[in-house]
What does this fold into?
Amino acid sequence: MDESELIRAAQKGDQRAFEQLVRLYDQNVLRLAMNLLRSPEDAKDVYQEAFLRVYKNLHTFRFDCSFHTWLYRIVTNLCLDALRKRKVRREESTVMETGEGALDRMDTLQESRADGNPQRQLLSRQLRERIQSSLEELTPRERTVFSLRHYQGLRLRTIGEMLGTSEEAAKNCLFRATQKMRVALGDFV
Amino acid sequence: MTCDDAKKSMPLFLYGEMSFDEEERLETHIGECRTCADALARDRAMFAALDAAEALPGAELLADCRADLHRNLAGVEPERRSGGFWDRIREGFTVHFHFAPGVGQPLGAMAMLLIGFFAARMLPESLLGSFHGAGVAEASVISRVRDVQPGPSGHVQIVVDETRQRVLTGSLEDQNIQNMLLTAAKDPSDAGVRVESMDLLKNRSQSAQIRQALLYAVQHDTNAGVRLKALDGLKDFADDPETRQALTQVLLKDSNPGVRTQVIDLLIPHHNSDLVGVLQEVISKENNDYIRMRCQKALHEMNASAESY
It folds into this structure.
């Protein structure tokens, strides 16, 4: 079944079709949530909430935009909410206390680029920490636009559509985000 | 273009978000301005660093998310998209169970439900006799509205799936347990249950009934994990003509290279003249280098040509 057939079957209550539909997009959804929230637990929560919302509300999807855009609108809104709440709670640290001492949750993530070389691993870790702190300096909206453009490779026009704003506003947001990143990472790169 | 304009547009340039003319103007400026060329190089380095620091979720996290979602979906009833009118009516109506004559399909479904209900009531005394004393625990009844149909005189018919959960325990040698596992091995709604059932059944392939189930799964199950388990169960029957015939079809038709590789592992040790034509056919259409190489090697050992004439 192609995507639109899966959507139609899922709209009629076919749970298997829905789960197949999920599998077309869920890796990218999780990646987006991870890059935005930088916390596996929060990313997992967003994943669940997003797909449950899609499941409950799929009957309202009328094919007047792409399913991808519709889904990402839900995901980015959930991520924005999570980022805003986090700003309020000031829970920016990824470090948590465990029975065996402090553990940075980001260390549990898959090391994507660094190989077994200890020096490269150290540099990679330092860079990650610097990027993490520079991302924290961004507003939730800047962070969202930046992640959607940089890590998801979405066009600014699509990002504007997802966030309910114009391409120009998304462009300005991206510009502010990269300016802040330049300042934060300037001496590192 | 000023240096300020150039620096502002560099990220858009790197993201490919500028028009052809804008890119031309920026590239011309950079060709003439050393400071901006350096700034662009720094931006490129920053982008590369950001790429390298992407927070990729591990496979385990994805698997956890999928498993949690699967569990959570079971407790959620989605709104179903249908005729619209009846959707609205359904929300406002008090529902009466009133079965009008001549409404075939829903009535049939209700009849099946009733049969299922009474069968479930009678199972401990009949089919499940041997489970007595082996631990039969009752759990809650799960209901799900399967269909809603308008009936005459303003009545509504609702078809409800009702599932009564039970925990059954018993020996793998028990015929009733085996029957349950054979049924579960064909459950189209849950590949996980099929994999687990197949895993238990595969060591009992001496039974003709179980072997038939393995042969069916290896050829027809949509999940590669189930097919691999079934293949594992058939390894002792790789020289049995019926099994070889099924395996040959799997080798020629299965979409999963892992499954095809395992079939080759089963077929090749029993050098059989009827395998030559099959291996030649595989070589002519196989995309996977490893499988082609295995076939070529096997043909070489059988002193046969890799090409068909």
